[in-house]
Every structure is written in structure tokens, then in C-alpha cells.
């Protein structure tokens, strides 16, 4: 089967179809809660972690072992927890420097420290109003709605639903603090390609994000928004990629591609896969690729394995010059940007002065009704029902 033809550039969307994003009024918070995916920290953790990730899907352990080898190749340790420890410390330092007097707590969806533990810790310390910062920049069920459902479930499981309130900062896909590290990364990679004798006329920039089912993509964002065949998820990524390439200022073609597809082969997911794209580009005469993990906040396992192992191997086998640029991680611009998002909510900053680099932003403080809903609508914090 031949690889699909790569679309280049952005997709036409109608930002005016988005309902007006009214900023919330200023609010006094007791603490900031860093919320993330979690990951194993040893070989014995790998299968229990993957069982948590796939809970309710009935996936047998032998199937999970097909994914487990990614973690086992790194000693069973995902880098994501250490990255979140570093991010938590960096956020606390920036918050302290600004005099906000907010402690930064941390809880995960799938591994220790779990959200329930983080909420109990917060409650024991006397905190009743938390502002969540999620390590996911884009709109989708798994990247936003599911985290809001996780928080609602954690409140119920701990018996704190009537005592504790949790808000969430807006999706920050086009905040300058998130975008700037990618601009620096692409500029640096293209400069190194030129220094290595690569002709930029034969170079292609591949912006990569996690594939999701096409139906989930269509459901991302407010139901009334007109954001194209990939919903808010695709539209946001394409809009940010355009901003990055405009800032880089080089006439280099680019595409949005996907990675880490899973699930039944009969279920349509967003395409093309990054490896198929690399193979196709090589066949078309491309000599170099710059791989940009645009959908990721940090260099966690799916970046280290799916891109650094698999995609770069595909590029080498196709005799292409290739480089994968860094994720934001704890880049000072990213850390400052996240604390800016906290400050917005503390101050109730007007939407007209909130930074947003695309026509789609600034996104909402409070998610719209039905935004990014899954098959079954569950209770969720920081949103309008359902």
C-alpha cells in the first residue's frame, strides 16, 4: 500500500464560528495542581502502569507486553515523572519570584503520585481552591476532557467534591511560551542542516503529534465550531505549525503528520504516519527532514521511542539527514508562559490582552458544553455541562 500524499500548509477553518471566550473573573486560589499522565519507574511497574492506562478495555497482558518493550528498553523507566518533578520545581521558582504565594502540587492520571493522593495532600494542607495546569496543550478528549473527568472522579473518590473546587487554565497551544521553544528548535535544526551541506530546497519539516481516532478529532472543540475535518485538534496543530514556520522565515515545505497509532485496524485514525511520510518524502527526492514533536510538552516515552528510535531509524534507512527538535520541557519561556496562565486566572485578565499567536485563540477558561466529549459523557470539572 502506498503512503498517502502529504498535505502541506494549513487547513481552512472558520475562527468566527467559535463561541466568544469570556474570561473568568479574578479568583483566589490556594494552590496550583500540576496534572500529568504518569509513567512507570522500574521494570516491575511497567505492566501495572499499562493496565491503568488501558483500564476497562479488556486488553490482555500479552498485548500490553507489545507496548511494554518500549519501556523495558529504557530499564522500565519513563522519563515523564522526572520531567514533571523538574517542571514542578521550575514552576514553583517562577511563582515564588512573582510573589504569588501558591504552592505547586502534582498528581498523575495513571501512576504515583495519583490525583487522589494529590487532592488528599492539598486538603490536609488546608487548600480548598486549586488551579490545574495540565501537561497537554491542545483540545481533544484525551488531552483535555479526560483530565477534567479524572479530576471530577478524584474529588468523588476522596469525598472532597463538596469541599474542594478545581479550575483549569485554558488550552495553551498558541501561547507564546509554548510556541517559542519550537521556533528556536526549527531554526537551530535548519541552521545545522545548512552547516552540514544540506540544501534547504530539498528539506521538509514534519510537525508530529499523537494520532487519535478520526471521530475523536471531529468531536474535539465546541460542537458548534467549524474547524474542518480534524476538528479543533487538527486545526490547532496546523495553526501553530504555520506560526512556527512564519517565525522561522525560511521557505521550507512542511506537513502535519502523526505517530503512535493504536487500537483496532478497522478504526480510522488520523494519518499519515510519520514513518510513512518520511518514506514517501525520500521517494520524492527530499534529502533532509526536521522532525518537530509539536503535540508534546516534554520528551516522554512516545517521543523517545516513536520518534528518536523509530522515525529517525526510518530516516537513516532512507539515507536522509534528520534531526528531532526538543520539546518545551523546562525551557524558561515555557515555564514563564505557564505561570502567565496562572496569573490570568488570579487576575481575571481581559481576553483582549491575553497572548495568543493564532486566530483560534485565546482559548476558553471554561470548556464549552459538549466540548471534546467522548462516547459517554461523564462529570468533569472546569466546564459547562454536559
Structure description:
The chain is an alpha/beta fold. It folds into 2 domains: 20-173 and 331-353, Rossmann fold; 178-324, Rossmann fold, CATH 3.40.50. Helix content is 39%, strand content 11%. It has helices at residues 46-53, 61-72, 80-97, 115-124, 141-157, 176-195, 214-219, 231-248, 274-283, 301-304, 306-317, 332-347, and strands at residues 31-36, 104-108, 129-134, 165-168, 203-210, 254-259, 288-292, 321-324. Helix 5 links the parallel strand 3 (129-134) and strand 4 (165-168). Helix 1 (46-53) packs across helix 2. The longest helix has 20 residues, at 176-195.
Q: Name the structural class.
A: alpha/beta
Q: What kind of sheet is the major sheet?
A: 4 strands, parallel
CATH topology name of the largest domain, in short, is: Rossmann fold
Distance between the termini: 42 Å
Number of strands: 8
Order of helices and strands, N to C?
EHHHEHEHEHEHHEHEHHEH
Query: What radius of gyration results from the CA coordinates?
Result: 20 Å
Show the helix and strand layout.
Elements: E1 31-36, H1 46-53, H2 61-72, H3 80-97, E2 104-108, H4 115-124, E3 129-134, H5 141-157, E4 165-168, H6 176-195, E5 203-210, H7 214-219, H8 231-248, E6 254-259, H9 274-283, E7 288-292, H10 301-304, H11 306-317, E8 321-324, H12 332-347
Parallel strand pairs: 1-2, 1-3, 3-4, 5-6, 5-7, 7-8
Helix pairs in contact: 1-2, 3-12, 6-8, 6-12, 9-11
Amino acid at each position: 500500500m502506498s503512503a498517502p500524499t502529504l498535505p502541506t500548509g494549513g487547513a481552512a477553518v472558520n475562527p468566527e464560528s467559535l463561541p466568544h471566550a469570556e474570561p473568568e473573573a479574578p479568583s483566589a486560589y490556594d494552590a496550583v495542581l500540576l496534572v500529568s499522565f504518569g509513567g512507570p519507574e522500574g521494570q516491575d511497574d511497567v505492566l501495572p502502569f499499562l493496565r491503568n492506562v488501558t483500564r476497562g478495555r479488556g486488553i490482555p497482558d500479552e498485548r500490553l507486553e507489545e507496548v511494554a518493550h518500549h519501556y523495558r528498553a529504557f530499564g522500565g523507566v519513563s522519563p515523564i515523572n522526572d520531567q514533571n518533578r523538574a517542571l514542578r520545581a521550575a514552576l514553583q521558582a517562577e511563582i515564588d519570584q512573582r510573589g504569588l504565594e501558591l504552592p505547586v502540587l502534582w498528581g498523575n492520571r495513571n501512576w504515583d503520585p495519583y490525583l487522589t493522593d494529590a487532592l488528599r495532600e492539598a486538603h490536609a494542607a488546608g487548600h480548598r481552591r486549586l488551579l490545574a495546569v495540565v501537561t497537554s496543550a491542545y483540545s481533544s478528549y484525551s488531552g483535555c476532557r479526560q483530565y477534567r473527568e479524572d479530576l471530577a472522579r478524584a474529588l468523588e473518590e476522596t469525598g472532597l467534591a463538596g469541599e474542594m473546587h478545581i479550575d483549569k487554565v485554558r488550552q495553551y497551544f498558541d501561547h507564546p511560551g509554548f510556541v517559542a521553544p519550537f521556533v528556536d528548535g526549527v531554526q537551530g535544526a535548519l541552521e545545522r542542516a545548512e552547516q552540514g551541506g544540506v540544501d534547504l530546497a530539498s528539506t521538509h519539516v514534519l510537525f508530529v503529534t499523537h494520532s487519535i481516532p478520526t471521530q475523536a478529532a471531529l468531536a474535539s472543540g465546541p460542537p458548534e465550531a467549524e474547524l474542518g475535518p480534524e476538528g479543533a485538534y487538527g486545526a490547532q496543530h496546523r495553526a501553530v505549525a504555520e506560526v512556527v514556520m512564519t517565525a522561522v522565515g525560511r521557505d521550507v515545505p512542511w506537513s502535519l503528520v502523526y505517530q503512535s497509532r493504536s487500537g483496532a485496524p478497522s478504526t480510522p485514525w488520523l494519518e499519515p504516519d510519520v514513518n510513512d511520510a518520511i518514506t514517501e518524502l525520500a521517494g520524492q527526492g527530499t534529502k533532509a527532514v526536521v522532525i518537530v514533536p509539536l503535540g508534546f510538552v516534554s520528551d516522554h516515552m512516545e517521543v523517545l521511542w516513536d520518534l528518536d528510535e523509530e522515525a529517525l531509524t526510518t530516516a537513516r534507512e532512507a539515507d536522509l539527514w534528520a534531526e528531532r527538535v526538543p520539546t518545551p520541557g523546562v525551557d524558561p519561556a515555557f515555564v514563564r508562559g505557564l505561570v502567565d496562565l496562572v496569573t490570568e486566572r488570579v487576575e481575571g485578565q481581559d481576553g483582549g490582552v491575553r497572548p495568543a499567536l493564532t486566530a483560534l485563540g485565546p482559548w476558553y477558561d471554561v470548556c464549552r458544553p459538549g466540548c471534546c466529549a467522548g462516547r459517554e459523557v461523564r462529570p468533569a470539572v472546569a466546564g459547562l455541562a454536559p
